[in-house]
Amino acid sequence: ATPTSIMVGTGRAAEMGVLFRKGDALQRLQEVEVVAFDKTGTITEGRPELTDMELADGQSRDAVLRLVAAVEAQSEHPVAQAILRAAGDRAALPAVADFASITGFGVRGTVEGRAVLVGAQRLMEREGIAPGELVDRGKALAAAGRTPLFAAIDGKVAAVIAVSDPVKPTSRAAIEALHGLGLEVAMITGDAQATADAIASELGIDHVTAEVLPDGKVAALEALRAGGRKLAFVGDGINDAPALAHADIGIAIGTGTDVAIESADVVLMTGDLRGVVNAFDISARTMRNIR
Ligand code: ADP
Ligand code: MG
């Protein structure tokens, strides 16, 4: 590779909103066979909305939502924002004691003397709470690509709440174009398996790794790398930084967190995943001129 052609390629990429932070990334991109994406905020908008709330017998929507929102008001997770928007007036929420965030599972707190737990079904399992009559509703919601969250009050499941995070309008075209370049596409997420499977099948994604704990993304990449295949990882979040650094090529979304950007080889100026396709295109053209 001549320094001039690399410079020209890097410049062209920058004009298209693709910043190569490391010059050799333009060359190394040609060896990549698998592109793995983070789901939330990368493939999807990262702004979920509450879509459903199914109650256990004897529970009222307003009462459950009030307790759940009080606990979620202490959380920074996008899911918490969805629940708070649905609950309305934040100032009217009761106080919370003993708040704890259980990373990758959900949150807990004591509200008006009642123990409130909100999170994935695996949080209920972890706490020894039977999901009960609502387990099938949770499954149906996940099969529709929504994220089911279980809310337990005083050790009993009171509701299943679904949030839905829309897929970015350009994600499908980007994935199709990557397939057109002969690449395999994977998705890694902390979300429920059935939710992830539904989204992946809608988008034609080849491999899904779901229910990954925040520190498990590197191990998920290693599994995809079986047989020594080179891979690129695309992500936006704080939790994505280790995977961005570990992948053969880390591609960060520039509207994401600073730590993700600092860990990446390539930065996309917008959240449009067609930027990933542009990166591969420019890399191929640059290397073709050289050979
Ligand atoms: P992701 O970034 O894919 O959402 P996380 O590890 O942050 O992955 O979360 C995994 C799962 O844990 C979420 O899909 C959700 O079910 C649950 N969870 C995390 N935080 C919360 C929260 N504040 N309230 C309810 N559930 C949560
Ligand atoms: Mg993300």
Automatic annotation (TrEMBL):
<comment type="similarity">
    <text>Belongs to the cation transport ATPase (P-type) (TC 3.A.3) family. Type IB subfamily.</text>
</comment>
<protein>
    <submittedName>
        <fullName>Cu+-exporting ATPase</fullName>
    </submittedName>
</protein>
